[in-house]
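Lecture 7 notes: from sequence to structure.

We start with a single chain of 512 residues. Read the sequence below before looking at the structure.
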Amino acid sequence: MMKTYLPTISFLFFLLSSLCNISLATEKYFCDSKLLDSLPIQQNGRIKPLLVHAKEILKDLTGKTSQDDLSSSELFCLLSLKSSSLPITTSLKAKIEHVEARILLSVGRDESSVEYDNLLTQLPTIQRSAMLIQKENSYKKYLNKLYNQANIYQELVAGANWLLPQRSSSNEIKWSTLKNFFSEEDLTQPSLASQKLAQAQKDFIALQGDHYLIEVTYAKLHLVDFSMLLTMIALIALVAIKNFNFALGFSVLTVLTESTYMILRMIISGRAPVTNMYETMLFSGLGGLFLALIIGHVKKDKIIVLVGLAYNLLSLFMITFAHGMFSSSIGPLVPVLRDNFWLSTHVTSIILSYGALGLSWLLANVILIKRRFFTLSSDDLARYTDITYTCLKFGTVLLALGIILGGIWADYSWGRFWGWDPKETWSLIVLLIYMAIIHGKHTTWIPPARFIPFTAAAFMSVMMAWFGVNYILASGLHSYGFSEGGALFLFSFFTLQIVLLIVTAISPKEKN
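Now the structure, written as tokens:
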């Protein structure tokens, strides 16, 4: 009998020992999440809780926010103490995904990552290799990204990646690095260090208030994950349960949850939540779902609600899993964006138009697939086409409004209404394409059989204006929105859409 339970007892003992070791490690070095999560720190000119900053840095370095059962704050704290005399063995690993980079760094076939501590010794090699590459290709971009990540890690383990608040003799908050904040005696006595951190937080709140604590709640609620779950439940309910009210309830709850998430971002940042690709993607999905619920109520049709939920789910998937393309960080704005009125009107109108046009794109592809691979009655085709046309009209009007507001803002900020900037030019191209489709549909210039394929294809222009200018062209006065990592995604999107259009153009099935 004892032999039967021995493996289980051994496993439980090992697990308990591991948990105790982790607990002792965090207590020994005052790195306790209860103390650290709400600690105010300053980084890149912004005051935020350590929990938020730790998650952002660790996500950027490893793709994860925790390790070895340590929370983000605990892991970040231990890494920051590596430059002290304390025997810290905690480290991070960098994933090496590019084939040529693996060869350069001598990464074995069975290995997928390298210790950052080892990577620091190869920084000159990485920098020299990147400089020798003349063309701005994927390998050079990857080496530059790896070099920047290694520098961030170097700053982190030096204890210089976060600034701690200290109350000066003149009752002002001054910001100090870890080495200046703690003495050697503090570091060897966790109780003293903990008291000093707690007092620093109290002093900060007394002098500057506790507004920053909202961001702790924001980070711990995981509202994006909750919204994703609600959206999936609503989709399943809409397909599997006859009672529409059940799915409608979860759809409304999804809108409320995402709205809460965006309102919290507005409160934290003090601006409209449409200033980077992460926020525009999220806002487009939310706006699309909200519009779908309105159209569904007016048209008394479930299909548009289904499409709205699907589009919202795609948006949530993008911001959650495509971390290389979307960063959830809240950072300071460039001067041109610090006018909340124009930011809240121009950009919001544009992104809402993308949500409406996204609904028309998704519904058009549903029609194409159903006609080609399944059966679609003429009544259903007419109904779906009418809803698609409604989405197009909403999207085109909002896009036109956004472009006009953008021109006024451009005159206010840059002294000219129009300058053929790539973002401006592509927005105009999108508007002209959709106006041509709407005009053609209204005048029968575009026959009903061609309206749906044209609508599906037209969204590629939206993707070019939305993603292509930012990820591929990366030029013009809208440089504050540029990023990297989306070229492959955009190429894949165009390829799949074109293939689908070609395949569905062959002998569509219709049933009267």
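The CA atoms of residues 93 and 115 lie 4 Å apart. Keep this in mind for problem set 3.
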